[in-house]
Amino acid sequence: MLHKIVATKKQEVERLRAEVSLAEMERLIADLPPCLSLKRRFLERRRPVGVIAEVKKASPSKGLIRDPFDPLAIARAYEAADVEGMSVLTDAPYFQGHLSYLRNIKEGLTKSIPLLRKDFLIDPLQLYEARAHGADVVLLIAAILDKKSLCWMAEEARALGLEILVEVHTAEELDTVLDAVEPDLLGINNRDLKTFTTSLATTLNLLGQLPQSTVTISESGIHSPDHIMTLMEAGIDGVLVGEHFMRQANVEQAVCSLVGHAAYASKGASR
């Protein structure tokens, strides 16, 4: 499945390159305000384990997750729960996402909450696209980027003012990332993108190999306070949660039930 997704992304990039020039992209982003810092939000968080809450309609493994699906209403519920950041799925063929969700959410929120573009990014044009549509942070996936490409994409993202959340799943990917770039945030994906099986042990096994200063996010398969407690005791800074929240009727309450109310937690908790 991962190879299929990447092949689709290559086709999307070629279409984008035919439709818009780099100079046009540069004009689109020239007057945008500075990006918000997701890293700072985690370093200054007011709950022991912070959360990146995901706006997600569907997935290749689970199919349709939320119907009806109103991205802005979901984002406003997350805003009310004072999440540290939001992840917005923009992949259309496999996750039923759209780039317009990013812009609509950015313009529709009243609080300053960093937005992550969640997609399979393989070319700098996608970074310009993300910046133009309101992203503050982009996801770089080690499973689809070799060391040279990872360095290139990280450099280009930072030149645009974007922070990077670099995602790994294996010890080999982690070694490559730590040797190539210094991520603003390091995501450990508990889901194997080749088989779509999920295990929280992935985070627990890799966490000890990271420098103490790394802001680390556990991703996928997190849906209970017990999971949060296990990760907190291991020293995680935050979690990225999508499917669990999307399956709840009251999204704001679901966030607070899982990670707690931000105002009631000690400020600045960190590893």
From TrEMBL:
Domain of life: Bacteria
A Pfam family the protein falls into: IGPS
Catalyzed reactions: 1-(2-carboxyphenylamino)-1-deoxy-D-ribulose 5-phosphate + H(+) = (1S,2R)-1-C-(indol-3-yl)glycerol 3-phosphate + CO2 + H2O
Stored SUPFAM superfamilies: Ribulose-phoshate binding barrel
One of the GO BP terms on file: L-tryptophan biosynthetic process
GO molecular function: indole-3-glycerol-phosphate synthase activity; phosphoribosylanthranilate isomerase activity
InterPro entries to which the protein is assigned, alphabetical: Aldolase_TIM (IPR013785), Indole-3-glycerol_P_synth (IPR045186), Indole-3-glycerol_P_synth_dom (IPR013798), Indole-3-GlycerolPSynthase_CS (IPR001468), RibuloseP-bd_barrel (IPR011060)
Family annotation (CDD domains): IGPS
Record keywords, A-Z: Amino-acid biosynthesis, Aromatic amino acid biosynthesis, Decarboxylase, Lyase, Tryptophan biosynthesis
EC number(s) given by UniProt: 4.1.1.48
Principal EC category: lyase
Pathway: Amino-acid biosynthesis; L-tryptophan biosynthesis; L-tryptophan from chorismate: step 4/5
Indole-3-glycerol phosphate synthase domain ranges (all copies): 2-257
Family: Belongs to the TrpC family.
PANTHER family assigned: INDOLE-3-GLYCEROL-PHOSPHATE SYNTHASE, TRYPTOPHAN BIOSYNTHESIS PROTEIN
Protein name as annotated: Indole-3-glycerol phosphate synthase
Organism of origin: Aneurinibacillus thermoaerophilus
